[in-house]
Amino acid sequence: MPRTAATPEQIGEFFDQANHALEIVTGRNFHVGYWTGPEDDSSLEEATDRLTDQMIESIRVGQGDFRVLDIGCGLGRPALRLARATGALVTGISVSKEQIAHATAAAKAEGLADRVRFQYADAMSLPFDENSFDAVWFFESIMLMPDRGEALRQAARVLRPGGRIALTEPFERVPVPAHRRDAVDACMANFRTTSIVQLDRYPGLFREAGLRLVELRDITGNTITGSMTRYIDALLSNQPEVTDSVGQETAERMMRGFERLQNTPEVGYLHLVAVRVGDGQP
Ligand code: SAH
């Protein structure tokens, strides 16, 4: 990408100042919602929790003391939902100190502090040993990291052989004609993404990290329009509070980002699952 990537520190600073505004607009899940179809009138909260449930299902940890790493944990809601649903021992990491404080308080308040812990850490240098986790996920976070391949290698290193890795992120759905390149880049820049991936890049990215791709779902139609419509509504009806919290410029940039994504059909949304190969496991 021609753009200069934000460093993990800058991403952390961005969230530290924007967490409150984002929470007003998107709720405590900083990821899109999933709607089953046009007749599905679920709220944003229901739909975003539903996508979390699909992520939980896709890592197949079952019930018990399985160890799961949530890379880019946001305010901690997905990790807490995962622990409640499965009994997993979850570690959530983020480069936003404010998110770690918020998520830690939420774990305590929900009586899950013995199963879920949150810590400040950078996905580009994970402070965990090899084979520390039974599953790992990047839930709408990897596109903010400086090097997608390195992020996947780091995740694969701490994952046990046979363990699953799940991720969701926006992606380039169709070839982008030259005259639309700027529009697509502008759309992604609004979300501070470091890069956007073309569909056919994923098998290689996983393969180079020692991972085998097992599932790839294009869920664009279930996620983007429903989420952006609701984000825009929430932003419009809470404009003074959002502006108060992040300032006019960031509030406007958020609005532009949502509108652009709604009007950029080349950008879609993916849910991918891979398995770590090794120790004789295919
Ligand atoms: N998964 C959460 C939050 C998504 S927002 C949810 O679905 O609600 C993106 C998250 O990625 C933020 O928590 C941000 O701090 C984190 N992130 C971005 N770059 C990171 C990095 N280099 N290392 C760790 N976390 C990172």
From TrEMBL:
Domain of life: Bacteria
Single GO biological process annotation from the record: methylation
InterPro entries: Erg6_SMT_methyltransf (IPR050447), Methyltransf_11 (IPR013216), SAM-dependent_MTases_sf (IPR029063)
Assigned keywords, A-Z: Methyltransferase, Transferase
Keyword Transferase in record: yes
MF annotations from Gene Ontology: S-adenosylmethionine-dependent methyltransferase activity
Lineage of producing organism: Bacteria, Bacillati, Actinomycetota, Actinomycetes, Kitasatosporales
Annotated ranges, domain Methyltransferase type: 69-166
Source organism: Wenjunlia tyrosinilytica
First and last residue of the signal peptide: none
Keyword rRNA-binding tagged: no
Name assigned to this protein: Methyltransferase type 11
